[in-house]
Amino acid sequence: MDHEIALFAEVHDILLVQVRDLLGMQGERFNAGMAQLVEDLAEDFRLEEELMTALDYRGRDRHVAEHTELLGSLRSLAPSEARAALTWLPIWFQQHLANEDTELAHALQAKGGRRHPEDAARPVSGALEEAVR
User: Fold this and answer.
1) How far apart are CA 39 and CA 54, in angstroms?
2) What's this model's pTM, rounded to 2 decimal places?
3) Burial letters 62-85, b for 16+ CB under 10 A, else e
4) Which structural domain range is residue 8 located in?
């Protein structure tokens, strides 16, 4: 797997750990964890969108539309629907990685961006911030 694709896979893997952890939570703890997941997604998407702008990425509008649609869906969930969303969220991540993020990774590679496997322990936002630089 290209280092650039690994960057996006790393981010999604970290978010999937949050999803797994949420499945074990109840009540207010679950609600707070779900809100944190949505905010983490928003921040990661913001950084990814900055990367697209810096690259003058031609697929930016389509990619951002997927981010916007997901965040809108998650933010509009009733508390009783939030747990069910955790069942389709991993599928969304897989599809997004396979399509949009892979295309973006190739654009990053074409522009000379590089990532190294030893950076994998960095926080999600740190990994994306480094790619933006």
Assistant:
1) 23
2) 0.77
3) ebbebbeebeeebeeeeeeebeeb
4) 3-132
